[in-house]
Each structure stands twice: as C-alpha cells, then as structure tokens.
Design a protein that fits this description.
The chain contains two helices and 26 strands. The chain has helices at about 300-305, 340-350, and strands at about 5, 25-40, 40-55, 60-65, 70-75, 85, 90-95, 95-100, 100-110, 115-120, 135-145, 145-155, 160-165, 175-180, 185-190, 195-205, 215-220, 225-230, 240-245, 250, 255-265, 270-280, 285-290, 310-320, 325-330, 335-340. InterPro entries: Glyco_hydro_beta-prop_sf, Mannoside_phosphorylase.
Length: about 350
C-alpha cells in the first residue's frame, strides 16, 4: 500500500504525560484527535483529552457528568460474570454499554506548527444532557471571522453532533445538538454552496445501510435537511467496516478534496487508515474520484501500539498553499503530525 504522509520527526507531538489531569486523583490516558486552526499568528489545536480515575486492577469504572457538573462513578468488578469487555474503550454490563474514559477539550498553541504547549485547564467540557459522557473529536471550520466547532456529544442517549462557535477562543455560542444520535464525524464546509451551509456527517444505525458519509444543508446552522448519502463502505477493501469525514473539505480547481478515515475489521479489532474523496465543486454530494489505496496507514510504533492500536485518525488540518499540515490521533493515544501535498493526493486519485 502507498503512504503519502511525511510524518513529523518529532512525533508524537503531544502525549498523555505532557498534559496535566483536570482534577486530583485522575490520570490522562489519551491526548488525541485534535481539531486545528490558525489564530492571531499562531497554530492552535483543540485536543481531545481522555481521563479516568486512578484505580486498582480489580475493577473497571465508567464516568459521567451529572446535571450539577459533578463527576459520578460506577465501578464494576472484573470478575463479575455480567461484565463483558468490548475493548479498551468500552464494556457492557447487564446489556448496557459503558465507556471507560471521560473526554474534554484542551487548547494547545504553537508558533511553528510542531512544538505545542498544552493549556492546563479544559477549554470545553460536557455541559448538557447529551454530553454527560463527555465530548469528542471536534472539527474546526473558519467561516468569515468565526470558528465553528462540530463535535461528538456522548451520553446514555447515544452519540450525537454538537456545535459551538467562537471568535476569540474564550467565549462560545452554543448551537446545541444539531444532529441527533446516532451520528458523529460532522464537519462544515468553509463557505456556502448554492447559498447554503454544507455539512458532512456520519449517521449510524442497525439493520440496512451502514456507517456511511452523508451530506446535509442549512440556511441558519441550526436546522439541517436535504440529507444525501455521499459515500459508502466498500466490501473487501481498506474502508470496508466504516468511514467518516475528517477536516473541512479543501477547495481545489479539480473539486473539494476531503481526507477521510476508513476502518477494516481485523482479528484484533479494527485498523484505521486515511484516504481521499474528490467532490464536485457545485454539487459536493457527487463523488468524482476516491482513493483505491489509503494515503496513510499505521506504520510507526506510536500508531500501532497504544490505548487502541493500529489507528491513524484525523479531524484537524491547516492548509498552506499546496501543503497540508495534517494533525491526527495515533493509536487512540497520541497527537501526531504529518505533511501532505495536495497535488500528490490528487494525482493518486487519477492513477
């Protein structure tokens, strides 16, 4: 398989040991899947920080945020026959699924795009009923002077798409739940198309269909409709199990270039790789071209070994001319960076 990524020599650029826990008695387990942006001459990342309470090795805990903002714990013995472990990220007890960590967002800043300093306190944490199990994997899209954050809110209701916006990275406007469960991997285009805002997202359900990339439009950013399926999984290929959008599509002369993730079932779980879609400029629900082979796959040890290994997952990028500074989560543990050439990606779609 080809791999077009030019990984940073300094990877991982953010590790759990670099981040201060949000409260006493907690440990940072994962620092990954960052959204990316530029602000006041600096590079910024919105890093997902996953934490758990420091416990013994005889039990597993699930954490949630109560309505008054307090963190509540449920502890389960590892020897309880009602406990079924799915993987490091979640487990089932009495036919109910629980997650093993609680995630919030931290800002990280850099002058060169490689060496980042992470703030000590969360910039955003779960604050609504639909975020009681945390917030995850934000995409950042700048439209005009405003930055829009589309991210996953997790709760007992499921995984839904939340949205906030900011102009100063201090105060935020809350749009609430813009797409209900089960839905995630949502990202806005950075300009209106045919007079409407455009969003890619990934609904999921049981039965017919699957975890595919869809498109929706809106005139006000609150109400979304005109839902169209853009791309599906492909049997017996590297993206056969699930797919999802990455960062905001990049406008090129050839079309909208969207880097997306695809997962394939393997004996140990799933392997996550990256590929590209080329969408029509006037009708981004129409796929012009798609990667036959991934443009990036787990190769380095920090991508193959970790909290959940064999994962490269992106939801953050900064475009500088032909170069994409792509920030990604590695093995569900680290934040890493890589450089891509837009021209090289487009050429790979033609071959």
């Amino acid at each position: 398989m080809s791999d077009l990524a030019k990984r940073f020599a300094t990877n991982p650029i953010i590790s759990p040991r670099d981040v201060k826990p949000s409260r006493e008695g907690f440990e940072v387990v994962c620092t990954f899947n960052p959204g990316a942006f530029e602000f006041n001459g600096r590079f910024g990342l919105v890093v997902r920080v996953a934490e758990r309470r420091t416990t013994d090795n005889e039990s597993v805990e699930s954490l949630s945020i109560s309505r008054n903002g307090e963190i509540e714990f449920q502890s389960f013995s590892l020897t309880d026959p009602k406990l079924k472990s799915l993987d490091s990220r979640s487990f089932i007890y009495n036919d109910t699924e629980y997650i093993t960590t609680l995630s919030h967002f931290r800002l990280a800043w850099s002058s060169d795009g490689e060496k980042f300093s992470v703030e000590d306190s969360p910039i955003l944490s779960g604050s609504s009923d639909n975020e009681s199990f945390g917030i995850e994997d934000t995409r950042v899209t700048k439209i005009g002077s405003e930055y829009f954050l589309t991210y996953t809110g997790v709760s007992s209701n499921g995984y839904g798409v939340q949205m906030k916006s900011t102009t100063d990275w201090k105060t935020f406007k809350d749009f609430g739940t813009v797409l209900p469960p089960f839905n995630k991997d949502a990202v806005l285009f950075d300009e209106k198309i045919n007079g409407k805002y455009q969003m890619l997202h990934r609904p999921t359900g049981s039965g017919l269909g699957g975890p595919y990339i869809w498109s929706s439009t809106s005139t006000d950013l609150f109400h979304w409709g005109h839902h169209v399926c853009v791309a599906t999984t492909r049997p017996n290929m590297w993206d056969s199990a699930r797919i999802g959008a990455g960062s905001a599509p990049i406008k090129t002369e050839a079309g909208w270039l969207e880097i997306y993730h695809g997962a394939e079932v393997v004996p140990t779980g799933h392997t996550y790789r990256l590929g590209a879609l080329l969408l029509d400029l006037d009708d981004p629900t129409r796929v012009i071209a798609r990667s036959q082979e991934p443009i990036m796959e787990p190769r380095s040890n920090y991508e193959t070994d970790g909290f959940y290994g064999n994962v490269v997952f992106t939801n953050g990028q900064i475009v500088q001319g032909d170069e994409i500074l792509l920030y990604y989560g590695a093995a569900d543990t680290y934040t890493c960076g890589a450089r891509f050439s837009i021209k090289e990606i487009l050429n790979s779609l033609k071959s």
